Amino acid sequence: MVLLPRMRDLGLGELLDFAPNCYLSRVDDILVLDDLTSAGFVGLTPNIKLDYSALKVATRQFAKLHACSIIMEEILSKQAGQRVTMYDLYSEYLQEVLFLPDVPDMKRSFDATIDNIEYIGSKFPEIAGKYPSEELRKKAQKGFNLALERVKPSEKVKNVICHGDVYVSNMLFNFDANNKCEAVKLIDFQLLRYCPPTQDLMFFLYQNSVKSTLDQCKAELIEEYYKVLSNSLEKFNLNIKELYPREVFEESLKLLKVQGIFHAFFYSPIQTLDPKLRESVFSDEKAFEKLKGNRFGLIDIGLELESYREVMKSLLSYVIELCDAGEL
User: Fold this and answer.
1) What is the per-residue pLDDT across 219-253, written as a single tens digit (0 to 9) for each?
2) In angstroms, rounded to a whole number, what is the distance separating the alpha carbons of residues 131 and 326?
3) How far apart are CA 263 and CA 199, in angstroms?
4) Cβ distance 53 to 181 under 8 Å?
């Protein structure tokens, strides 16, 4: 919470409604925020997928986060008379802590993701189509390698401070009486990174929706994101055509698409399980012992539920689309 007060001091307060107000912060000690439950905000379990209304409101919020990063860089650069980046100022908070292939535990998790993609492909041959298991595995490995590379700061396109972990459990939602989303707050900023803003956007879309929803509204959500980003910059007399032209944004979307898909596949086999089901499995000693001998046991349990199957089929379809497009 070092960053938000600095943004407020620079006059960005009208854009900071993407996060709760912070009243007290001490590193590794205490954090005092707005009590948003009294305002009707609720948390969602990680297996929940969002409808269009929630996707749209959340998209607007991290567009504001990214806009604040760009605006702050421009203000501070003007004051300093030289280029100043958020990474220059806050590098200690922006180091990669998740996608670290040289860390043994993380490497095992990444390898397990490749195993999971191959396994899920075998469960849905009607989607995997012309890609037998061995070929799908090779393409999945290439995709994950690209995801690891493209999550890094770009030397070609605009970088901003990204939330880095925009899945439903790191947001609070306010719904009206008809269950339409009216407001979203981003929380849990532990995985901040300095990279293209499309990293947040692509991961958010692929992680928090199913294909049937995203196919209908992806283009509109991308348009909404860019509009909010542009309007936010305009409030500070900044021109998006100069700072983040549409053609650069579109190119970045293409580059970060693979990252968003494989990031979502990294999270989803476990997070898509109903929390109560997951708890019952881990608390049942006999059931847990059976899982020890079956590395795909949790996936098999999940696949018994149609909601879980829909998510896995969606993610597998995205991977196959990348394969068919020659991107893997």
Assistant:
1) 999 999 999 999 999 999 999 999 999 999 999 99
2) 13
3) 10
4) yes
Q: Which two tokens stand for residue 126?
A: 């009607």
pLDDT in tens, 73-124: 999 999 999 999 999 999 999 999 999 999 999 999 999 999 999 999 999 9
Burial of 47 (0-12, 13-18, 19+ CB in 10 A): buried
Q: Please classify residue 125 by burial: count the beta carbons closer than 10 Å to its beta carbon, then call 0-12 exposed, 13-18 middle and 19+ buried.
A: exposed
Q: Summarize the confidence of residues 43-72 as an average pLDDT.
A: 97
Would you call 9 exposed, middle or buried from its count of C-beta atoms within 10 A (0-12, 13-18, 19+)? Answer: exposed
d(CA 212, CA 314): 8
Provide the whole-model pTM.
0.94
The total number of residues shown for the chain amounts to 328
Q: What is the pLDDT of residues 25-45, one digit of tens each?
A: 666 656 666 778 888 999 999
Report the C-alpha gap between 259 and 206 in whole angstroms. Answer: 10
Tokens of 239: 């021109």
Using an 8 Å Cβ cutoff, are 230 and 240 in contact? yes
pLDDT value at position 35? 73
**CA–CA dist 215, 238 (Å, integer):** 32
